[in-house]
Amino acid sequence: MSMSDWYEIARRVESLEDVPLERGLIADLQAAHAAQTGPGAGAIHFYTPTFKSFQTSEISGCGKNAWPAVSITAGDCKLQCDHCKAKILEPMIPARTPEDLWRVANEVIAEGARGMLLTGGSNHRNEVEYGPYYSTIRRIKDEFPDFRIALHTALVDDDIARCMEQSGIDAAMMDVIGAQETVTQVYHLRRRVEDFERSLEALVATRMKVVPHIVVGLHYGRLLGEWEALAMVRRHRPAALVLVVVMPFYAPAKRPFATPDAGAVGRFFFDARTALPGLPLLLGCARPPGTTKVQIDAYAVLAGLNGIAHPSDGTVELAARLGRRVRVTPACCSIVVGDEVMALDGAGGVEVDLETILADERARRGGTGLGRIPVVSEPATAAGGGR
Ligand code: SF4
Question: What is this structure's pTM?
Fold first, then answer.
């Protein structure tokens, strides 16, 4: 909207004041922005548990239980990838047998879940062995047709993809890796990059909503196969693409991960946006913390991504200052994947304007519109309350 310099606009956001941003990169992103068209261009959806003004009774709490994650192998995984070591599975609800899955589904539905993310550890071929579970998944979908199931598929062939589809799974997610070195070294996997592409192809041939993920910086913190992964996604056109940035926490000491360079990640966002015009591009909640996260989030907004989970302070404000249409859903990570994957049409959340965002940021910093003067008493107490 505004013709002013985006770098200068970013500098006006108080939370970004001390955050180094690359002027040249931002100029490139601004220049490319004019070319972005199609439905949803210019709109951005944030998923954040901290946007207090929108903690309405309708969306109570952070929605953690709306999309529970369930693992059919509990915490077990044969692959032990260097960036994960199966840590991602640990907090999930275990369902080690089809009977357990039936019981877990009934329990979470009784607690109000709208769907679940179903996953599990891999075998040595990066396959999750769902075979014994398909009839139970079918039974869950027959009994509770509105209950959505998103499945982390891992690698599949045509037959397996069809089994998944026939069991009633709504959405299929898989990590797309574009460099053979990364498959071999990070995943310890004797499969070929082509197997990832063939899996993606098999999945998009079904009626399932396919939402691949690209883990940026997967090669020990460096970008390597990301562009090939983009090309694969482009060849097979899924429903949306989720980008996450590698979190090196779990890396073993002898094979450490560097923190990916935020500028390099920002340029990759730009390349993704350019390669996939009109495709919903979402930034998932995994990314390194600290200044890097703030920078990555700013570049995600500037590059024209369509959704951001858990934005850093200042990110929502930056989007509004750039004239983007901003929607906010107060939510945890799990609901992000669930909602974004299931409702890609951009519905949901509350539309907010810059004034509201600024008021919220002020409130979170401890002021109440009176600058930063701390408020000692709660308004309800101050009002007397009949005492
Ligand atoms: S296969 Fe998946 S769960 Fe297992 S270690 Fe690798 S990333 Fe983690």
Answer: 0.87
